[in-house]
Amino acid sequence: MSAATGDARPGRLARLLPAVDWLARYQRAWLRADVLAALTVWALVVPQAIAYAQIARLPPQAGLFTAFAGLLAYALLGTSRQLVVSPTSSTAAISAALVGTVAAGDAARVGPLSATLAILVGVALLTLGVLHMGFVSRFIAAAVQAGFMFGLGLTIIVGQVPKLLGVPEGQGNFFTQLGHLLTHLGDANAWTVAIGLTSLAALLVLRRVAPGVPAALLVVVAGTALVGLLGLAGHGVDVIGSVDRAVPAVTLPSVAWSELVALLPGALAIAVIGYAESATVAESLADEHRYTVRPDRELVAVGAANVLSGLVQGFITGGGASQTAAADRAGARTQLVSLIVSGLTVLTAVALLPLFRDLPQAVLGAIVISAVLAFLNVPALRRIARLRRDSFVLALLTLLGVLVLGVLAGLLLAVAMSILLLLSGLSRPGSSVLGRLPGSLAWVALDRDPRAQPLPGLLVLRLDAPLLSVNAKVLRDLVRARLGEADPPARIVLLDLTLSPDLDIGGVDVLVAIRGDLRERGVPLWLAGVRGATARMLARGGLVDDVGREHVYRTVEDSLPDVRATLAP
User: Fold this and answer.
1) Are residues 169 and 300 both part of a single domain?
2) Looking at the structure, do residues 172 and 33 belong to the same domain, yes or no?
3) Does residue 87 lie in a domain region?
4) What is the CATH number of the domain that holds 539?
5) pTM
6) Res 439: pLDDT
7) Residue 357 shares a structural domain with residue 474
8) Are strands 458-463 and 492-496 parallel, antiparallel or unpaired?
9) Do 410 and 497 share a domain, yes or no?
10) Can you tell me the mean pLDDT for 283-311?
């Protein structure tokens, strides 16, 4: 079965190293498309890697090393055919925020701390992957993520505009930096403004009218040539300066134990947010091209990419939306694209890096701004506001949190709000009284389908969420309330546990309590929808024997013969 049309079940080695699978099935007809896509992605990744290294407060080679590591590791271990894992503006900004706090102004510590942070993020992701927790990306609510990315985009832009204008860079949160920028507009350098705004305009226009053109590479070449030919560095145009050739080498960064501890909470938050962004890009492309990505393997792949990035003195990496979109538009068929770009990136670091000496900072700022404009997703916020007002408020709170508190605090706030939102939803689930649809085997909520009919004397209840400690008492209160309202009085209470694939101790305890309440009223408790882990927990808790094994059913329908026999006059 071809990679373009479907997925054969991979062998054991291929499950551990997905590259084995697609390399074994690689077709010569794909090579041309993959090579052309690789050249397109290289032309985009190299300028962005250098620009994003600037955001992370690191030298240009750190960006190239990060790209090399991310591309190589993901190509070997990832399950998406198009995802490009390389430096991104969001990971660079988050890295700078967290590392800047720990470095406390010591520029010499930024490199080792950035590398350590990448390794910590990678280890966190690897651990989640080994524990089969690929679902972790769903913890970040869509509204919270939209607000976080919008706030992050504004923060990055206000930090890059000074490069575009040639004015001193401000410090602090978004509003502090904005105030500093507005009060220093008079210090703008005319040549820098011309280069920066022209570059930004060229990037935006080319993206719209010629999306296949490597716009970032073109503005880098044009800006560098212009500065070199006219000697604009002597006229106040800031350039990246002399850059030595560099070869990525594996080195364990040296950090103090206290620094490691200080980085850890942020690393855990970044792992969740960063993976959510990568997973969203990978899954959207998999849906479009009709294949499947494996979330647990994605965690391992992105985790390994970050560990390798840290070991070669890079910073956090992740699935880049713009780079991945470029690869997909260029016709990428497999991860051979990433392998080729990884090699070209090393070649750039080894042989071409000195050529970037006259690259204007204004061009790098333009590249960053053009990339993060996609973060300012107004239509997404409008859609959230239209669907749920409370979710829109959460998005705005997260956005303001990033702007006021800063990127790091905003990141932690986003994770905390997503978890609280999840727990809030689980702790206040809906519930249903079920009835049988005539002429069928289906039992549905009485208040949702007027055709459903209850069976007199039988009260069938379902919690519309998994039964957990956080909502267990809701079920107990539901049973008490519905039992008192039942007309005619209920002679049997049947709880449908179909939505509970497993039970925690709190869930078992509340079922035991419900059984005790009903016994005092002389009403038996029966259970349906019981299978797998739920059945084992009920047995361990003694509830199966208490209820009676004969009254624990796989479905509500299975209970009907016993119900009719019990309720018969």
Assistant:
1) yes
2) yes
3) yes
4) 3.30.750.24
5) 0.73
6) 79
7) no
8) parallel
9) no
10) 87
The radius of gyration computed from the CA coordinates of the chain, to the nearest angstrom, equals 29
Between CA 42 and CA 54, with CA 48 as vertex, the angle to 5 degrees is 145
Could you give the CA distance from residue 42 to residue 327 in angstroms, rounded to a whole number?
Answer: 10
Q: Over the stretch 357-400, which tens digit does the pLDDT of each residue have?
A: 898 989 988 988 887 888 888 998 999 999 988 889 888 998 99
Query: Which of the listed residues 378, 403, 422 is the one where a domain comes to its end?
Result: 422
Residue with tokens 């620009």: 51
C-alpha span between 253 and 120 (Å, rounded): 12
Residue type, 140: I
Within a domain: 7 = no
Report which secondary-structure segment, H or E, holds 436.
strand 431-436
The secondary structure of the chain in percent helix, strand, coil, rounded to multiples of 5, reads 65, 5, 25
Label residue 10 by pLDDT band (50, 70, 90): low
| Domain assignment of residue 335, yes or no | yes
Q: By C-alpha distance, which of 516, 95, 2, 77 is closest to 293? A: 77
Final residue in a domain of this structure, among 422, 448, 479: 422
Average pLDDT over residues 149-157: 87
Polymer length of the chain: 569
If one counts the domains in the chain, the total is 2
For 496, phi then psi, to 5°, come to: -90, 110
CA-CA distance, 12 to 31, in Å (whole number)? 26
Q: What is the pLDDT of residues 63-87, one digit of tens each?
A: 999 999 999 999 999 988 888 999 9
Across the range 425-440, mean pLDDT stands at 82
Host domain of residue 178: 12-422
| Beta-bridge partner residues of 461 | 433, 495
> Based on the domain organization, do 401 and 440 belong to the same domain?
no
In a domain, 4, yes or no: no
* Residues 190, 59 share a domain: yes
User: Range with the lowest mean pLDDT among 36-50, 134-148, 373-387, 517-531?
Assistant: 134-148
Cα distance between residue 336 and residue 66, in whole Å: 18
Q: What band does 1 get if pLDDT is binned at 50, 70 and 90?
A: very low
